[in-house]
Amino acid sequence: MLQAQDATPPIAQDRQGGILTLTLQREASRNALSEEMMAALQAALEGAASDPEVRVVVLRASGAVFCAGHDLKEMTAARAQADGGRAYYTDVMGRCSRLMQTIVTLPKPVIAEVGGMATAAGLQLVASCDLAIASDTARFCTPGVNIGLFCSTPMVALSRNVSRKQAMEMLLTGEIIDASTAREFGLVNRVVPEAYLGQVVAKYAETIAAKSPLTLKTGKEAFYRQIEMPLAEAYDYCAQVMVDNMMARDAEEGIGAFLEKRSPEWTGE
């Protein structure tokens, strides 16, 4: 029995200034996205969305594995149900999809700090974040094809980060790629020595947290909406976003501060 581990929350939360760090801490299960883990992450992200003090969210993990994807023991146990697990799998996949979309629609930037292996839905978690910084020891793969289960939902996030050929290479072979290849593919922004991973992520988070929260919210939402639009529609939409943004107090303050050569004072309005 793992009573001591079960008594520990699946994620640890730590807020320093405007930066909220969420740490997956289920090393024994390779930080798998169990029902408990997904519920905890969902609640933490929803809390961050409504907390005006939070400017940036950092998602990291303890141990050698960032996240091993879905909990296959839970998934296998569900086969004993009368319907063979269909209702359970439908529910779990729905929860996971909701979690990934929550990251994308969160009005605060989310940075993945990847210090270990990220596989299947764990890779999906990384790909769903706005930025991803990896250590030089990090590894990535979508290995579902090796066990007869194509990584279809991870494919959604993966194919929106890397080219089609690279996505299909990962999905069809199930092979592990190293951090430098992940950077070449566009899955992560930077690869840094393991010893400096936390420092580099902190620098990114601090830089972003110093910006206007309204501007960050506006820009993140606009980015994900326009990326799926035809070119002309995207320009029409983003032109209106710029107009609305220009009318905001923070834009007036930021431009004024720039012209007056002083630091801006953001109000989030």
From TrEMBL:
Pfam families documented for this protein: ECH_1
Function: May play a role in fatty acid biosynthesis and insulin sensitivity.
GO biological process: fatty acid metabolic process
Claim: Protein biosynthesis is one of the keywords in the record: no
Keywords annotated in UniProt: Fatty acid metabolism, Lipid metabolism, Lyase, Transit peptide
Protein name, as recorded: Enoyl-CoA hydratase domain-containing protein 3, mitochondrial
One annotated GO molecular function: hydro-lyase activity
Family: Belongs to the enoyl-CoA hydratase/isomerase family.
CDD domains from the UniProt entry: crotonase-like
Cited SUPFAM superfamilies: ClpP/crotonase
Species per Swiss-Prot/TrEMBL record: Stappia taiwanensis
Signal peptide residue numbers: none
Gene3D superfamilies reported for this sequence: 2-enoyl-CoA Hydratase, Chain A, domain 1, Lyase 2-enoyl-coa Hydratase, Chain A, domain 2
